[in-house]
Specification:
The chain is mainly alpha-helical. It has one domain (8-89). 70% of the residues lie in helices and 0% in strands. The protein has 5 helices and no strands. The protein is flat and about 55 Å long. The chain starts with 12 loop residues before the first helix and ends with a helix.
Length: 93
């Protein structure tokens, strides 16, 4: 029997994004498929599935809104990674 959405733990869209990054790392380190990594993370957090976790956070639209709200931070992290690669491997000139 599936847990009712109201009975599941509270979770924010920003936390969903953090968990998604954790699942990506888990996928890499343990050789899991993305869906298996997401399911494992969801169960660890007390949810029967990744879909229920996202639904509790307000759905995919809420998670997407949280992601775009943090877009400026993501651009900064991307620029930092790019600068690190250039220092490490040279500018290709």
């Amino acid at each position: 029997m599936s847990a009712r959405l109201a009975d599941l733990p509270a979770i924010s869209p920003a936390r969903v994004l953090e968990l998604k990054r954790e699942a990506a790392a888990l996928k890499t380190t343990e050789g899991l498929k993305q869906t298996a990594a997401l399911a494992r993370i969801a169960q660890r957090e007390g949810f029967p599935s990744w879909e229920r976790l996202v639904a509790k956070a307000g759905g995919t639209e809420a998670v997407h809104d949280a992601k775009t709200a943090n877009q400026g931070e993501a651009e900064i992290r991307h620029a930092e990674r790019h600068a690190n690669r250039l220092r490490r491997y040279g500018g290709g000139q």
